[in-house]
Write a structure and sequence with these properties.
Length: 297
């Protein structure tokens, strides 16, 4: 008898969830998106275009509360007690809608992002001399980059700004020189050579600051410019001193799922959202709450 009651109760809960979803979708389809978005506590979507509001409402009525409640995102927001994770994802969805991203793409992006929290995480052994921030940080961001990758250079100020906003975060820079870039491997060797002399940061920035000028001669000139021994660098390159380390870094990246640069991981979880200051802060803040909640929100 007890078993039967439990089964029935479970079915009732399932039906209830389905009804909430169907009702929300029905309301959205028959109502003005602007009206549906007008009274959500803590959010102001008034500046979104009508098209963006329509896409956002589709997302909010299709997706469930990100913290596991049997409510759609819209219903959760209307209650006024949505968790921080849910509210952050809604903010991201609104931004993407404002950029013209279709609801289906936003929904897929949110699903992929959320799956990363429960998926198996990568473990990296990045040299401490390639890291900045507190060693006991609860959140560590590892970035795989290539010195001739323009997107990596564009991500550099994003990471710097995110670090300023969240100084308790640790960032480690892993090298992933792409075969398609003729000077990337030599630049990576220069960065590791500088690291061993205590000047990784100086060389890292010098290489990116002069990204469009990189060549064998120019990289050697940068070695000298940051105060290092050019002849000692030539010897290290001739002896292939850093090639095994660079290859190991690339292999670690590939194993973790690096398929392009830059690729970023927060506590071993790949950041799948398009890189920006906002998405980095979202990933860092979500991870901090995840850790504090013992792998839950």
């Amino acid at each position: 008898m007890v078993t039967t009651i439990r089964i029935v109760a479970g079915r009732i809960r399932t039906v209830g969830v389905l009804l909430v979803t169907v009702a929300s979708v029905a309301v959205a389809q028959g109502s003005d998106p602007a009206r549906l978005l007008s009274d959500l506590p803590g959010f102001d979507f008034s500046r979104l275009s009508p098209a963006a509001k329509k896409e956002l409402v589709t997302v909010l009525t299709d997706e469930f509360d990100a913290c596991g409640r049997p409510l759609t995102l819209l219903a959760s927001l209307k209650k006024g007690d949505a968790c921080k994770h849910t509210r952050r994802l809604v903010g991201y969805a609104a931004f993407q809608a404002s950029e013209g991203t279709p609801a289906t793409e936003i929904i897929n992006a949110l699903a992929k992002y959320n799956q990363g929290f429960t998926a198996k995480r990568a473990r990296f052994q990045v040299d401490e001399r390639q890291c900045v921030g507190p060693k006991d940080a609860k959140v560590t961001l590892v970035e795989f980059s290539d010195f001739e990758c323009p997107y990596c250079n564009a991500a550099r100020p994003m990471i710097d700004e995110a670090l300023k906003a969240r100084p308790q975060t640790r960032v480690c820079y892993a090298l992933f020189p792409l075969a398609a870039h003729p000077n990337a491997t030599l630049a990576g060797q220069a960065a590791l050579f500088a690291r061993d002399a205590g000047k990784f940061g100086a060389m890292y920035n010098a290489l990116f600051d002069n990204q469009l000028s990189l060549s064998e001669g120019f990289i050697k000139a940068l070695v000298k410019k940051v105060g290092l021994d050019e002849k000692a660098f030539d010897k290290a390159v001739a002896e292939k001193k850093y090639l095994d380390e660079l290859n190991a870094s690339k292999e670690a990246g590939r194993t973790a799922g690096v398929d392009s640069t830059p690729s970023m991981f927060v506590n071993g979880r790949k950041v799948t959202l398009n890189p920006s200051v906002e998405t980095l802060l979202l990933a860092i803040d979500d991870e901090a709450d995840w850790v504090q909640g013992n792998s839950s929100w």
